[in-house]
Hints:
- By secondary structure, the chain is mainly α.
- The chain has one domain.
- It contains 4 helices and no strands.
- The protein is elongated, with a radius of gyration of 24 Å.
- The termini are far apart.
- The mean pLDDT is 86.
Amino acid sequence: MFQTPEPTTTELTLSSPALLFPAISLLLLAYTNRFLALASLIRDLESKYRSTHDTSLRAQIENLRSRVVLIRNMQVAGVASLFFCVLCMLVLFVGWPLAGKILFATSLILMLASLGISLRELQISVGALNVQLQDLEERNEGSRDARER
């Protein structure tokens, strides 16, 4: 009675790539916010480093430098994903479905690359926070030991 037709091939319509627009836009906004936060933090740390020459500050700045490079790569992959998504829609509009499928697949792969780089940047970020928290705990224990003497 209610039979669904079996799909023979995957149909790609103009609405399929359009579904990625909100996701890509939100990701790019999040990446930009990360970048701006890191840029501000780097400026603050650089100012403190110039006055104190603390080697731990220098190490933090180097860590942030690698994270900024990752964020730039995340943004590049995200923008390229959006570019291929729009190009896919144009190609589908013209009536070239095979080229549209290839471009859409490329867009998805670039989105995956962007998300993968984001995961790596997050791991580095958490690692840096753990080192800083451990340093804080060691300082607190050292000051507690000094008070007890």
